[in-house]
Structures are given as structure tokens and as C-alpha cells.
Design goal:
By secondary structure, this protein is of the alpha/beta class. Helices cover 47% and strands 13% of the residues. The radius of gyration is 19 Å and the shape is globular.
């Protein structure tokens, strides 16, 4: 379930049930601080917003990159900030299409076409955002788990953390274990995050984590995220900080 503020139309969070890709509404903390109550709902705008999301779900199945300009124009008309558009609408849609593909309800070409659309959308939004140089000493390193070739989620996460002022370095696709250890030993980040698409990718990540903990200056946090985590991946070790939402990382690093 994807929760948005019914007053200012900012993305709040995803909540259970995570396997239902429907729009719910509440009031964000910023609006609550202004005295807005949960009864303050603009029903007309909320209807338009839900209609927009329904159109995106249809685009995910049948559309293509030619729809990017229309999507951006409509999101701006509704007042949806770029990061909220990515995290609150397109990130869940990527998971939904992945689930539909895994269960044979959409074709591989559909999944690839939608991934290309999201990639073009992300590139457009990045081109419009202020440019930040790649950090010399990143506080956070993001890495795809072994055999996870879905890079868009990590790109979105990189964009989000960078926008929040957190020096971040993302590596896509994944790296051999030896290179991961060398990268961490060189940069000595405060946290390292792994993105998992499938439950089977947990085992190699756990093996790398055991080696990371033996480094002379290991990171304070080992983070787990990605589609598998969002859908309830069981974590067999307490070494990891499980992050269902990107916002959960910011307090850990004081960002």
C-alpha cells in the first residue's frame, strides 16, 4: 500500500500489505505541524491523483519511453516533487511489474520496456537537478547483490541520498567479493548497502558481510534493501540493518 498526503500530495511511505500496489492517503508530518487534520482531504485532487497512478500502472504494462514527457507534465501539474514521483510511484511500480513478470502475468519484453521508460525518466530528472561531484570520501556505498542485474532501484536510491546531502557512491552492476572488500577498505564508509532482488541473493551477501566485519575499519552499518527486502526477506543474521524505506537510512547517518 502506497501512502500519500491527502493535503499536499507528498509521498509519506509504503505500508503493509506491501504486495498491494494501491494508493492510500493520510497526512504527512509537515502538514500535521501546520495544523492540518486527517479530515482535510481535497477529494477532487485526490481523485485526480489516483487517476494519474492508474494511468501509470497501465503505462507500465503497455507504454514506452515516448510517454516520459506526458508523465512529467502531468506530475508537475499535480504538484508532485521529482523524488516523490520516483520513490512513491515508480519504485512501487517497478516492484509490481517484477512480481507480475515472476508470476507469468507480463512478458519479459513488457518488463524491459518499462525498465527503459523508468531509466529515461530518471535520466531526465537527473539532468534537471543540480549537479553534485562524485564524492571523494563517500559516507555510504551502495552495491547490487551478486546476480542482481536490476540497477534502477539503486540509481533511485543514489539520487535520493545525494539529494538529501549524503555523500554516496553507488556501484552497478554488482562486484566480485574481492573488489567489494578493496573498495570498502579504501573508502572506509560509515555504511554499506546491498540491494537484493531475490531471496536467493541473501547467501552471497551474507558471505561478503562476514568478510567485511573482519576488515581493520569496518563500516558501522551493513544495510539491506531492494525488492526482496520490501517483500519480506527473512534475514538470518543480526549483522544487517534492514531498510524497507530509504528514509530509514538517514537517521542512522545523521542526515
Amino acid at each position: 500500500m502506497i501512502k500519500w498526503c491527502s493535503y499536499c500530495f507528498r509521498f509519506i511511505c509504503e505500508c503493509e500489505p506491501y504486495d498491494q500496489f494501491l494508493i492510500s492517503h493520510g497526512v504527512c508530518q509537515a502538514c500535521l505541524a501546520k495544523g492540518v487534520t486527517k479530515g482535510d482531504i481535497d477529494k477532487k485532487n485526490l481523485h485526480e491523483f489516483k487517476t494519474f497512478f492508474s494511468s501509470l500502472q497501465a503505462t507500465a504494462r503497455y507504454g514506452g519511453s515516448a510517454q516520459v514527457s506526458r508523465i512529467l507534465a502531468e506530475s508537475r501539474r499535480l504538484g508532485i516533487p521529482p523524488m516523490d514521483l520516483l520513490l512513491g510511484l515508480f519504485q512501487p511500480l517497478l516492484v509490481e511489474i517484477g512480481e507480475l513478470w515472476a508470476t507469468g502475468q507480463v512478458t519479459v519484453s513488457t518488463e524491459h520496456r518499462f525498465s527503459a521508460l523508468v531509466g529515461d525518466l530518471l535520466a531526465q530528472l537527473r539532468s534537471e537537478a543540480p549537479r553534485n561531484p562524485e564524492p571523494v570520501s563517500p559516507r555510504l556505498i551502495l552495491i547490487n547483490a551478486s546476480d542482481n542485474y536490476h540497477t534502477l532501484g539503486l540509481q533511485m536510491a543514489d539520487t535520493f541520498f545525494t539529494t538529501c546531502g549524503l555523500a554516496t557512491l553507488s556501484i552497478t552492476p554488482g562486484l566480485p567479493s574481492k573488489e567489494i572488500l578493496e573498495l570498502i577498505a579504501f573508502h572506509q564508509p560509515e555504511a554499506v548497502g546491498f540491494s537484493l532482488a531475490l531471496h536467493t541473493q541473501m547467501k552471497p551477501v551474507g558471505e561478503v558481510a562476514a568478510c567485511i566485519r573482519k576488515l581493520p575499519a569496518p563500516p558501522r552499518y551493513l544495510l539491506l534493501g531492494g525488492a526482496a527486502v520490501r517483500m519480506g526477506l527473512p534475514v538470518p543474521t543480526p549483522d544487517f540493518q534492514v531498510c524497507q524505506h530509504l528514509t530509514e537510512v538517514l537517521p542512522l547517518l545523521g542526515a
